[in-house]
């Protein structure tokens, strides 16, 4: 089982988060991003159920933040950091 302190696990999580947010930023229209973000946040509230997980809430929040300019600037700075971590640096 993966341990959160394992560097390879952190790289994989950072890579998945970066790729998901980059895909959302580049391929999903603005109104739809907010809707997807809201659905992910609702799913994250029910994280105790199978398949749904608490991981969905922060991802949904980040997805929705792509539509708000001040939050988007902050999030894009974090995406640079995720990209560095995913690359191993």
Report on the structure:
Helix content is 74%, strand content 0%. With 89 residues, it is mainly alpha-helical. The protein has one domain (15-87). The model has no long low-confidence stretch (mean pLDDT 85).
| Chain-averaged pLDDT | 85
| Structural class by secondary-structure content | mainly alpha
Element order: H for helix, E for strand: HHHH
Strand content: under 5%
Rg measurement, Å: 14 Å
Shape: flat
Largest β sheet strand count, sense and barrel closure: none
Distance between the termini: 23 Å
Question: How many helices in DSSP terms?
Answer: 4
* Beta strand count: 0
Multimeric state of these chains? Answer: single chain
Low-confidence segments, given as residue ranges, are none
Helix content, binned percent: over 70%
**What's the number of domains?**
1
Any key phrases for this structure?
89 residues
Provide a concise account of the structure shown.
By secondary structure, this protein is an all-alpha fold. The protein has one domain (15-87).
Layout: helices, strands, pairs:
Layout: H1 7-27, H2 30-45, H3 56-65, H4 69-87
Helix pairs in contact: 1-4, 2-3
């Amino acid at each position: 089982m993966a341990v959160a302190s394992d560097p390879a696990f952190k790289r994989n999580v950072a890579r998945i988060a970066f790729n998901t947010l980059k895909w959302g930023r580049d391929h999903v229209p603005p109104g739809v991003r907010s809707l997807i973000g809201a659905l992910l946040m609702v799913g994250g509230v029910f994280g105790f159920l199978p398949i749904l997980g608490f991981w969905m809430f922060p991802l949904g929040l980040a997805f929705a933040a792509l539509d708000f300019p001040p939050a988007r600037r902050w999030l894009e700075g974090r995406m640079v950091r995720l990209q560095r971590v995913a690359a191993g640096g």
